[in-house]
Amino acid sequence: MTTEASLFFLNRVFQMTVDKLFPQDWLAPPKRQTIWRGIVSPYLRSTEEALSILQSAFPVIPAHADNLTALSAAVSAAIRFITDLYPSLRTDLSRGGRYQLCGRLWEAIEKRPNVSAYWEGKQAQEKGWTITEYGTAEWIAEEARKYGGPSGNSSNL
């Protein structure tokens, strides 16, 4: 269920990039707050809770030699996208943060050699998260720098 929720989360946010009237404003306030309150924050809270419950049944944080599961890949992709949208959220993903299980899972996947090489290479920055010009990694990074946290204030998350 967490895998499907992660994919649904990504789809919901990606749909916002195709705003017919003002597609270039999909990450500007007040839409930025709407995305945070209505989509991102509930996703992170429920994913953190689900990972906590699942952890009692099996290790949700894969060891370096473990095969990736659909769950770890989907959650990691969703969190990568979230941290692109809201870079200041990274502190909440660290140990002791509000979403530390999400952060530990994301970190475990990001540290894998092939995954880190992909994200560190220029190839990732040249590709879009969506098919619109307002969904490229570079455009999203610029909007995140411009508006910062969910409220649109770079110091407010």
Task: Provide a brief overview of the structure.
By secondary structure, the chain is an all-alpha fold. The chain is built from 7 helices and no strands.
Description:
The chain is built from seven helices and no strands. It has one domain. The two termini are about 30 Å apart. It has helices at about 1-15, 30-55, 70-85, 100-110, 115-120, 120-125, 135-145. The longest helix has 25 residues, at about 30-55.
For the record, the count of structural domains works out to 1
Let me know the largest β-sheet. none
Q: What is the overall pLDDT average?
A: 81
Give the N-terminus to C-terminus distance in angstroms. 28 Å
Strand segment tally: 0
Low-confidence segments, given as residue ranges, are: 153-157
What's the tally of helices?
7
Strand content range: under 5%
| H-E string | HHHHHHH
Percent helix among the residues?
Answer: 55-70%
**Rg over C-alpha atoms, rounded to the nearest angstrom:** 15 Å
Structural class: mainly alpha
Which term fits the overall shape?
globular
Strands, helices and their partners?
Layout: H1 2-15, H2 31-55, H3 70-85, H4 100-110, H5 113-120, H6 122-125, H7 137-147
Features:
157 residues, mainly alpha, 7 helices, globular, disordered C terminus
